[in-house]
Design goal:
Blueprint lengths: L5 E4 L6 E5 L4 E5 L2 H7 L4 E6 L3 E6 L4 E5 L6 E5 L5 E2 L1 E3 L4 E5 L13 E3 L23
Parallel strand pairs: 3-11
Antiparallel strand pairs: 1-2, 2-5, 3-4, 4-10, 6-7, 7-8, 9-10
């Protein structure tokens, strides 16, 4: 349960938002569409059918893209390209990229999803060496 609103922003700070309410689920999606959206192994999105978003600043600096013939939607900042929350009214769902939040959340991901589409290089990543900071 989230008693305090979660806050977040894009990388450049042009867009700021507040989420009031609870997240119901948290998924790491490995589908090809989410990999393209994130440029990474998966997207990390929080979902809520009851939470509300308030755009604190920069709402006019956001754009939403919906892939033709699908329910796949993403919202982003026009200046820096950071992914941002998007409300999908046709299914009544708020989708919040976890990395866009500045607030700490008390949830861990519920599951990896669409694993049949997982990139071949995204296996056993826990065994790769860790570097605190940039490689030197």
């Amino acid at each position: 349960m989230n008693t305090n609103p979660a806050t977040g922003q894009c990388l450049c700070g042009a867009v700021k938002f507040r989420i009031s309410g609870d997240f119901e689920s948290f998924f790491l999606c490995h589908c090809g569409r989410c990999r393209k959206d994130s440029g990474s192994a998966h997207s990390a999105n929080l979902f809520s059918s009851t939470a509300k978003i308030t755009w604190v600043s920069g709402e006019e600096n956001t754009r939403t893209f919906q892939l033709s013939g699908s329910r796949h939607v993403k919202s982003f900042c026009l200046d820096c390209g950071s992914v941002l929350p998007v409300f999908q009214p046709e299914i009544g769902l708020l989708v919040v990229p976890a990395g866009s939040l500045d607030s700490q959340i008390d949830m861990r991901p519920d599951a990896h999803i669409c694993c049949s589409s997982r990139a071949k290089w995204d296996k056993d990543l826990a065994s790769i060496k860790e570097i605190n900071g940039l490689p030197g």
